[in-house]
Specification:
six-stranded antiparallel sheet; 3 helices; 36% strand; lipoyl; GCV_H/Fam206; Biotin_lipoyl
């Protein structure tokens, strides 16, 4: 699993990146009440907003940690947004992206680096 400074995570299965928000982000948001996932077939660019998560505290954009095409969206979040709080780094994933440039992963942090990054906040 890799992480961004915006608190998204990526898990790889070949050239398919599963993307969600980190436990830290989910905890900071509080109770998630709405999730807007991207449409299947949408092309996303690394760093661009591709989803929205709303909690009782705030609405936040979710940024694509990699570029590519959305091949699957977690539609279950539309009826069970609380899954993001219950399992942010598991069943609470937002989308699966077929990566167009695997080298973009090189700029992401591994778990240890992300944990160190969190200490600076």
């Amino acid at each position: 699993m890799k992480f961004t400074k915006d608190h998204e995570w990526v898990s790889l299965d070949g050239d398919i990146a599963t993307v969600g928000i980190s436990k830290h982000a989910a905890d900071a948001l509080g109770d998630v009440v709405f999730v807007e996932t991207p449409e299947v077939g949408k092309t996303v660019a690394k760093g661009a907003s591709f989803a929205v998560v709303e909690s009782v505290k705030a609405a936040s954009d979710v940024y694509a940690p990699v570029s590519g095409e959305v091949v699957e969206a977690n539609d279950a979040l539309s009826t069970a947004p609380e899954t993001v709080n219950a399992a942010p780094e598991g069943d609470g994933w937002f989308a699966k992206i077929k990566m167009s440039d695997a080298s973009e992963l090189d700029a992401l942090m591994d778990q240890a680096a992300y944990d160190e990054f969190l200490k600076t906040l």
